[in-house]
Amino acid sequence: MKAVSAREAKHHFGQLIDEARAEPVVVEKHGRPVVVVLAVEEYQRLTGRTVEPSGKKREDER
């Protein structure tokens, strides 16, 4: 499983999303794992919960 620093995740968030869609990514802070980013499909498979869109529109979609 790939690991990235919190700083790297912040500065390359789009890339983090792309990578997490392929496989879970561990985000580390001060060298310690703090969260795992994973695709919605994988989260739903693991938890049995459905994730629905928030219904909020982005500013540029109004």
UniProtKB/TrEMBL annotation:
Looking up InterPro entries in the UniProt record yields: Antitoxin_Phd/YefM (IPR006442), phD/YefM_antitoxin (IPR051405), YefM-like_sf (IPR036165)
Cross-referenced NCBIfam families, in alphabetical order? phd_fam
Q: What does this protein do?
A: Antitoxin component of a type II toxin-antitoxin (TA) system.
Q: Which family does it belong to?
A: Belongs to the phD/YefM antitoxin family.
This protein is called Antitoxin
Give the species this sequence originates from. Answer: Paracoccus maritimus
User: The organism's lineage?
Assistant: Bacteria, Pseudomonadati, Pseudomonadota, Alphaproteobacteria, Rhodobacterales
